[in-house]
Give the backbone structure.
Amino acid sequence: MKKELIDKFGRKVTYLRLSITDRCNFRCFYCKPIKDFKYIPHNQILTYEDFLFMAKVLREYGIEKIRLTGGEPFIRKGFLSFLENLREIFENIYITTNGYFLKESAKELRKIGIKGLNVSLDTLDRKLFEKITRVDALERVLEGIEEAVNAGLNVKLNSVLMKSNIEGLIPLIEYGAEKDIPVRFIELMPISSEVRKEFLSEDSAKIHIRKSYKIIPLKERFGVGPSKYYEIKEINAIIGFISALTHNFCETCDKIRITSDGKLRVCLALDDEVSIKEAVLKRDEKALISAAKKALEKKPLSHNMSLENMISGKNMYQIGG
């Protein structure tokens, strides 16, 4: 019998998004609240050995690609060594990062054989960058992106759409064109009233972009995510949109998420997590797969997210972005 994970709607799961830490050196308003946030205690977070056991088992059950997130994954000690070990299990390893540590690690990532790197960059304006992230680090992030591109890594930029940066969309697109890297615009998730006030839809963003450039739909995909891509021929730019609220892509979802403390989540908008921690700590493959299949029974055909409906009792840094 073929080993695989399939939900009740027949969707085969091939993609794991793994959060290795909830910690981050940035405090973006759409990821962490300004006050009263608590990190998971260190003794409750799974070890790298735990993650490797989990990865081996899930690889046997049809997971083909893995994306490592946080928090900020590079903030966890030993991350590069972990990647070397994980590379023995997975050929297709992707990372999402805020870019702060790329300058020092880009060449090593290339040696390890990372398939793709998504760097979060919401603005090229230093003051707005600091307002969003609460860290004055734009120059360092840009240097990291430059280093990653020069190292030959497959880089894409992730930029969250927000009203306060609508005038920054064109500079980001032109920056991506200059560096020959795609820029993906992502709709905000409605996790708080503060975030909802900033919501900018894909359609509104396109209207703004079309004032400067013509955007042409592409059939080609750049990576493993759900982004729909467009070409701007005037400047040889590639842009994408990930729009979970206004243009959802649930029918093709092949993803599960696992948090750093061992909770499996089948949908970003569904708080009904299943703990796999005990199975992982006991190195119990049967219990791990049983828990995963139990969770998949609850995977909805589509989410119920809207601007009026907060997606989660948790913040994004706790879920893994």
Residues 15-319 form a domain with the TIM Barrel fold (CATH 3.20.20.70). The first helix runs from residue 48 to 60. The chain has a mean pLDDT of 91.
